[in-house]
Amino acid sequence: MKSLLILLFFIHSLVACCQEKKSSVSFGLKLGYGMTTLGPNYTESNGYKHQFILTSGARVGGYLQIMSGKKFIFQPELLLVVKGAHESPDFSNGPPYPTYDYPFRTSYIEIPLNLLVKLPTPGGFFSLGGGPAPSFPIYRYIYSGTAGFEMGINFLTGYQWPLGFSVNLNFTKGLSNVQQFPGAPGLKNSSIGLTAGYTF
Asked: Which of 67, 101, 116, 166 is the most exposed place for a label (fewest CB within 10 A)?
């Protein structure tokens, strides 16, 4: 509840700031691909090493683009993303155990709230910035631990052409423990995504 109140205050403050200046609102869609891993790696007391490698999944959704004056953009997004990792354990220092590649994958509804700086060019504009990115799990491919609500920080950069087409690169660092196992540290998502968008 506390996180939700902070987010609502953040949105209200940004919208109020936009309303004080000349602003315009557009709607857009984006589609792309992301890669995610969990961390940190850890070693159990019996010598088993748990190592996490990248997993991949689609990133798809929509966004609002609220232009505030000539320099700032508030861009809240609503995305369906896949997060998690593949675990590739090393049992060389522990009791014999079969090798396996175990996936931890969860679909989330992610809501990045990006405040961007607009950098105009003769053929369009660059944007650079970021903001909080709460995520809500909706489906677990493999049940493991407790994949739950996640708060993260999103960093976003991109380029948009005058006709509305854009390309965007983002990095999201999870701040919440989303998986917990006995003797293990809290595991957090880290993801990078590349998307193409169109603003109407």
From this structure: 101
Interacting residues of 6 by C-beta distance below 8 A, sequence separation 6+: 132
Q: How far is CA 25 from the centre of its chain?
A: 23
**Measuring CA to CA, how many Å separate 157 from each of 7, 19, 59, 166?**
22, 24, 16, 10
**What is the percent of the chain where pLDDT is above 70?**
76
Do residues 99 and 138 lie in contact, with contact meaning Cβ atoms separated by under 8 Å? no
For 97-122, the pLDDT digits (tens) are 555 566 778 899 999 999 999 999 99
Residues 142, 129: contact at Cβ < 8 Å? no
Domain regions of the chain by residue span: 2-199
E strand or H helix that includes residue 7 = helix 2-20
Give the Cα-Cα-Cα angle 148, 151, 156 (nearest 5 degrees): 130
Half-sphere exposure of 49 (CA within 13 A, CB side): 7
Token pair in block for residue 2: 């506390």
Backbone angles phi, psi at 15, to 5 degrees: -65, -40
Whether 5 has a pLDDT exceeding 60, the answer reads: no
Q: What is the pTM of this model?
A: 0.82
Q: Identify the CATH number of the domain defined by range 2-199.
A: 2.40.160
Residue 20: strand, helix, or coil: helix
Average pLDDT over residues 152-161: 97
